[in-house]
């Protein structure tokens, strides 16, 4: 299992156990997700967006105000983060596959 796949699993697990996590754990997971998503977007070639329409901004906002968020809101944010990372991973694996094929 790759580190990315393991992190996706960790986010989904945390979403299902959100009521048992501390605010620090919730915040830290979301912060790690934001960094991971930004790094993966950079690898894919997606330009950085700092607009309100960027879902990563929503994750950051949730992380910063974690004390004011309901369990359902945090669960949704964790699942959104896992989904974004999963999609970016699929794109990256596809790009790597294309590079291998074109090198032959």
Describe, in short, the structure shown:
By secondary structure, this protein is mostly helical.
If you had to describe this structure to a student in words, what would you say it looks like?
The protein is mainly α. Helix content is 76%, strand content 0%. It has one domain (3-103). It has 4 helices and no strands.
Q: Write down the overall geometry.
A: globular
Please, how many domains?
1
Q: How big is the Rg?
A: 15 Å
Query: How many E-type strands?
Result: 0
Q: What level of helicity do the residues show?
A: over 70%
Structural class: mainly alpha
Q: Tell me, rounded to a whole number, the average pLDDT.
A: 91
Low-confidence stretches: none
Number of helices: 4
Q: What can be said about the biggest beta sheet?
A: none
Question: Strand content of the residues, in percent?
Answer: under 5%
Name the helix and strand elements from N-terminus to C-terminus, one letter apiece. Answer: HHHH
Distance between the termini: 27 Å
Keywords summarizing the entry:
104 residues, mainly alpha, 4 helices, 76% helix, 0% strand, globular
Q: What's the arrangement of secondary structure elements?
A:
Blueprint: H1 3-16, H2 23-44, H3 55-64, H4 71-103
Helix pairs in contact: 1-4, 2-3, 2-4, 3-4
């Amino acid at each position: 299992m790759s580190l990315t796949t393991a992190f996706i699993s960790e986010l989904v697990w945390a979403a299902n156990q959100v009521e048992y996590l501390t605010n620090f754990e919730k915040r830290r997971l979301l912060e790690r997700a934001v960094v991971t998503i930004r790094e993966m977007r950079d690898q894919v070639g997606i330009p950085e967006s700092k607009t309100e329409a960027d879902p990563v901004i929503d994750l950051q906002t949730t992380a910063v105000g974690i004390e004011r968020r309901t369990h359902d809101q945090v669960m949704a944010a964790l699942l959104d983060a896992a989904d974004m990372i999963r999609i970016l991973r699929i794109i990256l694996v596809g790009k790597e596959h294309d590079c291998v094929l074109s090198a032959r």
